């Protein structure tokens, strides 16, 4: 018996979820009734090792729980994601300068003899930026930061897709 199939090996939450899903399949096809499902689910929830979990399925055919590969308890800390990831330097510069350009244009129109159509300059720059980099290009860093916070909240940041 190799180490990966050892009944003394501790199980993960993913192993418990796999066992509960397998129990649900057995309930669905009528191999166990709802009361037995509740009893076995309680045993699955309380199980600490693969051996304890396997005992719940001794008298049942497949499906059985699928155990994940044992992983190292300590992982390398993740590098923090910068909110500027994926944003070009030109987008950063233009995104920072555009609000200043709007304010400066309005100030020039109010304090000088410039006509109102001069406001079309920053509007035109916005339109060109949107055409090149897509809608909301000047707020892309805010969207990335919001996505990063959402991933952290849901525990998906840094997980590997299988």
Automatic annotation (TrEMBL):
Record has Membrane as a keyword: yes
Coiled coil: none
Annotated keywords: Membrane, Transmembrane, Transmembrane helix
Membrane-spanning parts: 93-110, 116-133
UniProt entry tagged with the keyword Transmembrane helix: yes
Residue stretches making up the DUF1707 domain: 9-61
Superkingdom as given in the UniProt entry: Bacteria
One matching Pfam family: DUF1707
UniProt name for this protein: DUF1707 domain-containing protein
Source taxonomy: Bacteria, Bacillati, Actinomycetota, Actinomycetes, Pseudonocardiales
